[in-house]
Amino acid sequence: MDLELLESTLAGLGQPAFRAGQVWEWTARGATSYEQMTNLPVALRGELQERVPLSSLSVEREALASDGTEKALFATADGRPVETVLMRYRGSKGSASMPDPSRDGRRSLCLSSQSGCPLTCSFCATGKMKFGRNLTTSEILDQALHFRRKEAVDHAVFMGMGEPMLNIDSVLAACERLPDMGIHPSHTTISTVGWIPGIERMTSHYGPTIRLALSLHAPDDALRSEIMPVNDRYPLADVLDACRRWHEVRKRKVYIEYLMLSGVNDRYEQALALARLLAPRTAFKVNLIPYNPTDSPVEGSSREAIAAFRDALEERGVPATVRLTRGRDIDAACGQLAASR
Ligand code: SF4
Predict the structure, then answer these.
(1) For a tag site, which of 17, 175, 201, 311 has the least CB within 10 Å?
(2) Alpha-carbon torsion 332, 335, 338, 341, what sign?
(3) Centre of ligand 1 from the C-alpha of residue 28, in Å
(4) Taking the model in full, what pTM does it have?
């Protein structure tokens, strides 16, 4: 719902300011029509129906994966593509070598912050798209509301299209409203490739702590710059210092996301180099992510290589888990969002 349009419409109709709050409460609880908003006057419901669409996004396509993961492709009012994923967890714990860290019944949204992305990480399908623009706060919330109308949701991660730190004001404004939908700040994560001004903003911003994830993916500057050009601007040591400052202020661990790329970043020495970077141990937790095929020539690491990498980290006191991939068969997994199908 375009919240600015809602407020200006209500003001134009001479309605008291609290009406916007009433509409938002219903919307955040999953209302699918103004008719359901029974504490609004009937005539006002009719006016709003005419003037303020329930969503600022239109649904172009939806897909359901065999593991219950659902993906929606939206278009903004000016025709920009936006993709969002709902991951449904059924409590599978996985195998001993590939444990599933998810909790029973979790419903986790992967939200986009931009249409396309101006950064060009080599492994990422979104980075190969033409960059459109930053999404508004309402467009971010409307991704979540689309799924909230279907069922309860309780986790959100900004790991969809775009680099959230390049649109941090709108992202933080959206985070302020997610609790109304049932998503607590401690269950909300903003993931960055290392855009330091955004990390600093998350450190200093007033309000509850939202979790921070750093997509690190390479344990040295040379390799990182090769696969993530943003590293030329913000080198690894500076990014990790910014993460340590966030940890000191916010008293939470930084999640380190590490995509496992066969023959690129999955060697034993690279696990040791990564372990050396992540001091103090109490500040970081590593998620190893199996790579999902895009049209990139790079392949994902084998299960054995991932397990050995994790063991090398844990032997050095770095907590590490292997994330089960979700929605791979509908191109909804990490690095696959490109408005393609
Ligand atoms: S990984 Fe993130 S920052 Fe890099 S190109 Fe993809 S969406 Fe952009």
Answers:
(1) 17
(2) negative
(3) 29
(4) 0.92
Quote the CA–CA distance of 337 and 82 in Å, as a whole number.
9
The answer to whether domain 58-330 has CATH 3.90.1150.10 is: no
Task: Determine the distance from the C-alpha atom of residue 338 to the mean position of all C-alpha atoms in its chain, rounded to a whole number.
Answer: 15
- Decide if 202 contacts 245 (C-beta within 8 A): no
Q: In the chain, what are the domain boundaries?
A: 3-51, 58-330
For the CA of 124, the nearest atom of ligand 1: 6
Q: Is the CB of 193 under 6 A from ligand 1?
A: yes
Count CB atoms within 10 A of the CB of residue 77. 12
132 Cβ below 6 A of ligand 1: no
Q: Is the CB of 163 under 6 A from ligand 1?
A: yes
Spell out the per-residue pLDDT of the chain, length 341, in tens. Answer: 999 999 999 999 999 999 999 999 999 999 999 999 999 999 999 999 999 999 999 999 999 999 889 999 999 999 999 999 999 987 644 444 444 444 458 999 999 999 999 999 988 888 888 899 999 999 999 999 999 999 999 999 999 999 999 999 999 999 999 999 999 999 999 999 999 999 999 999 988 999 999 999 999 999 999 999 999 999 999 999 999 999 999 999 999 999 999 999 999 999 999 999 999 999 999 999 998 766 667 889 999 999 999 999 999 999 999 987 777 676 665 565 666 54
Active-site amino acid positions: 83, 334
Instruction: Please report how the helices 303-315 and 268-277 are oriented relative to each other, as an axis angle in degrees rounded to 10.
Output: 40
Residue with tokens 């609004």, as numbered in its chain: 40
Tell me if 139 CB under 6 Å of ligand 1: no
- According to CATH, the topology of domain 3-51 is DNA polymerase; domain 1 (1.10.150)
Q: Which helix (H) or strand (E) holds 133?
A: strand 133-134
